[in-house]
Amino acid sequence: MRTSAAGNKPAQTSSQGFTLLELLVVVALIAIATAGVSLSLRGSADSALERDATRLAALMETARAQSRASGLTVVWRNTPTGFVFEGLPPPGLPQNWLNDSTRAAQPLAVVLGPEPLIAPQSIALVSTQGTSSIWLVSDGLSPFQVQRSPGRTPP
């Protein structure tokens, strides 16, 4: 007959199942994988358009600040391949889109200063790869903001 030392249990040959910790680890891994897949499925054209809109809003505010600091009138115009900030001293600001498929929906010019208050402005950006559009909107006093529709800027 076999005996064991005090405090030792004999080895069990049957399976006990999974522990709660093992199940939690598996569920967490599945959740992380699902989140990664859902983020990667977002439309690349929409992401690129939003990235260009956010960058253009920052460039508009930079040009507006430079115009107010220098006292020079700065005008933003779109071109067939990008855009241009007229009136800034060299080297100026970037003049191209990050994505080749981004375009301004209509030809227009936006006067950015040197006055602290400009007329309300809205610029529609579209992607040539899709049907999506995004707007840059300013009420003339507040900074340019990126919006999905051309509505008024929030207070």
Automatic annotation (TrEMBL):
Keywords: Membrane, Transmembrane, Transmembrane helix
Residue spans crossing the bilayer: 20-41
Pfam families xrefs: N_methyl
InterPro entries found in the cross-reference section: N_methyl_site (IPR012902), Pilin-like (IPR045584)
Protein known as: Prepilin-type N-terminal cleavage/methylation domain-containing protein
Origin species: Limnohabitans lacus
Organism lineage: Bacteria, Pseudomonadati, Pseudomonadota, Betaproteobacteria, Burkholderiales
